[in-house]
Automatic annotation (TrEMBL):
Keyword Cell membrane appears in the UniProt entry: yes
Gene Ontology CC terms, in alphabetical order: plasma membrane
MF-aspect GO terms: dipeptide transmembrane transporter activity
PANTHER family on file: DIPEPTIDE TRANSPORT SYSTEM PERMEASE PROTEIN DPPB-RELATED
Superkingdom of the organism of origin: Bacteria
InterPro entries: BPD_transp_1_N, MetI-like, MetI-like_sf
Signal peptide: none
Family the entry assigns: Belongs to the binding-protein-dependent transport system permease family.
Domain named ABC transmembrane type-1: residues: 94-295
Protein name (database record): Peptide/nickel transport system permease protein
Principal cellular location given in the protein's record: membrane
Length: 311
């Protein structure tokens, strides 16, 4: 098990290094930030001073090595916009994004698992068809389109909810529904498929034959085994939450990392964009590690395989 974890950490480090390198190269070769921040009539001396101040006049390999050295030392650079550390600029937005994504993820699980279980237990009935129809509809709607529909109906027509901002809990409702709907639909479909496969297994039929209640059979025998393939889907959904936040935060003017990403890319604020990408990459590789460890915890066969491989 120790070798397994060490190998995962090595792959995590390599993945982060590749992502950081590609991001650095793409940002540095896609345009000159001086042309974005300085007025069109700026003198060549002003442009030269700007590039020298931010180290953009140095050869690209030198910039890259200096950036890696600074990152290893905890220095993620400074924002072109206000000169503050990029980590501080991004850190200010993290609480709002965590609130939005955490609530959205809870909604995904709270809706997806019950709907998937009910659909599987009511297989080939009108309940099953209704749940799956709703799931397909929810998954098919793009985030930006669903968000605009919610604004038009609940903010402009009914005037029940605020359309932008983050001042109260009412501001959270529509962004959470926008992000959580598609994820709940995916979880419901995968839980249904996994449950249908599991409830036909001999050990489930044996549990039913012993006179156990349906609730006990589902919770103690079917659901834990159905959760194993669903863990992977949940891991991917955690990554897609960040991508969904970029669009959703822009639609609802939610002051989180997603909205900051849009403004930083538009203004070519290199240090801020690189910090956001690094944060997202760390989040993704950590989620993948947690998913792999959950596999070993949920499925004894994986633990046995790791133990045999070590021996």
């Amino acid at each position: 098990m120790t070798e397994f974890i060490i190998g995962k950490f090595i792959r995590m480090f390599v993945a982060l290094l590749v992502i950081v390198t590609l991001t650095f190269i793409v940002l540095r070769t896609s345009g000159d930030p001086a042309q974005t921040f300085l007025p069109p009539d700026a003198s060549p001396k002003t442009v030269e001073d700007f590039r020298e101040k931010w180290g953009l006049d140095r050869p690209l390999p030198d910039q890259y090595l200096a950036y890696l050295k600074n990152v290893m030392g905890g220095d993620l650079g400074h924002s072109f916009v206000d000169g503050r550390p990029a980590s501080q600029v991004v850190g200010e937005r993290i609480p709002k994004t965590l609130l939005l994504l955490g609530t959205s993820f809870f909604l995904m699980l709270a809706m997806g698992f019950p709907l998937g279980i009910i659909s599987a237990l009511k297989h080939n009935t009108w309940v099953d068809r209704l749940v799956m129809s709703i799931a397909v509809f929810g998954y098919s709607l793009p985030n930006f389109f669903l968000g605009i529909l919610l604004i038009l109906f609940f903010s402009m027509y009914l005037r029940w909810l605020p359309s932008t901002g983050s001042g109260t809990w009412q501001h959270l409702i529509m962004p959470v529904v926008t992000i959580g709907t598609a994820g709940a639909a995916v979880i419901a479909r995968f839980v249904r498929s996994a449950m249908l496969e599991v409830i036909s297994k001999p050990y489930v039929r044996s549990a039913k034959a012993r006179g156990l209640s349906r609730f006990t059979v589902v919770v103690r025998h079917a659901l834990p085994n159905a959760a194993i393939p669903t863990v992977t889907v949940i891991g991917f959904l955690l990554g897609s939450l960040i991508a969904g936040a970029v669009v959703t935060e822009a639609v609802f003017a939610w002051p989180g990392i997603g909205r900051l990403t849009v403004t930083a890319v538009a203004s070519r604020d290199l240090a801020v964009v690189q910090t956001i990408v690094l944060l997202i990459a760390v989040t993704m590789v950590c989620v993948n590690l947690i998913v792999d460890l959950l596999y070993g915890w949920l499925d004894p066969r994986i633990r046995d395989g790791l133990q045999k491989g070590r021996n």
